[in-house]
Sequence to fold (73 residues):
Amino acid sequence: MSAAAAAAAAVSSPSKAELAKMKRHAHVKIVEQPASKGLRFRYECEGRSAGSIPGASSTAEHKTYPTIQVRTF
Fold:
C-alpha cells in the first residue's frame, strides 16, 4: 500500500475509541411503521404467501414499505 493510500485509509477509518463510542450510541429509528390493517407476515413453510408488508402511508397509487434507519451519533 502506498503512503497516500495508507493516509487515506487512516483518515476514513474510525479509531477503536470512536468505534466504541458509535456502538454505545447506535440506535434504530423507525421511519415507516407497518400498516395496522392488511395481511400479516407469513413464513414460506406456512404456505399461502401474503406478499409484501405495506407501510402505514401506502396507497394504491404509491406503495410504501416498513423502513428503519440505523443511526450512529
Summary: The first strand starts at residue 27 and ends at 32. Residues 25-73 form one domain. The beta strands are 27-32, 67-71. The mean pLDDT is 79.
